[in-house]
Design brief:
Number of strands: 8
CATH class of the largest domain: Mainly Beta
CATH topology of the largest domain: Immunoglobulin-like
Shape: elongated
Oligomer: single chain
Radius of gyration: 21 Å
Number of helices: 1
Order of helices and strands: HEEEEEEEE
CATH superfamily of the largest domain: Immunoglobulins
Largest sheet: 4 strands, antiparallel
Structural class: alpha+beta
Number of domains: 2
Helix content: 10-25%
Strand order of the largest sheet: 1-3-6-5
Length: 130
C-alpha cells in the first residue's frame, strides 16, 4: 500500500512540474510589443456622431504575437482585431467603433488578451458626448 501511495505521489508531482515547465515556457517565449497609443481621446462629439479608431500594436520580438480576444466594456463599442500571427516588425490592428448612447463623459475600456506578458492589456477611449 505504501508503494502505491508513493507511486501516486510521484505521478502527481511529475505532472505538476511538467505543467509548471509548460507555463514558464509560454511566458519565456512571450513577444515584446509596442503600442501606438494606449488611450485615444476623441474630444467632444454629439449623439449623432460615431467614432472609428484603430489601435496599432507592433511586434518588436522574434516570437509571434497572437491576439486571442478583444472585448469592450459596453455594447456601444464594437471591436474587430487582427486574427493572424503577427511576425517581427509587423503590426496588429484593433479597430474600434464607438456609438454614443448617452451624454456625458466617456471612458470605454477595451481589454486585449494576447500571448504577451502580462496576458491582459487595457486600452481606452475617452472623450465627452454633448
Amino acid at each position: 500500500m505504501k508503494k502505491i501511495k508513493l507511486i501516486f505521489l510521484l505521478l502527481i508531482a511529475n505532472s505538476i512540474f511538467y505543467s509548471c515547465d509548460k507555463v514558464n515556457e509560454y511566458f519565456r517565449e512571450a513577444p515584446v510589443v509596442e503600442y501606438s497609443k494606449m488611450t485615444y481621446d476623441f474630444g467632444s462629439i454629439t449623439m449623432k456622431d460615431t467614432i472609428n479608431y484603430t489601435f496599432k500594436i507592433k511586434n518588436i520580438s522574434k516570437n509571434d504575437l497572437i491576439l486571442e480576444d478583444v472585448q469592450s466594456s459596453c455594447s456601444c463599442t464594437v471591436t474587430n482585431f487582427t486574427k493572424k500571427n503577427v511576425k517581427l516588425n509587423e503590426f496588429a490592428e484593433i479597430k474600434v467603433m464607438y456609438v454614443p448612447i448617452e451624454k456625458g463623459k466617456v471612458k470605454q475600456d477595451i481589454v486585449l488578451v494576447a500571448n504577451t506578458k502580462p496576458r491582459f492589456t487595457i486600452l481606452n477611449l475617452i472623450g465627452s458626448v454633448n
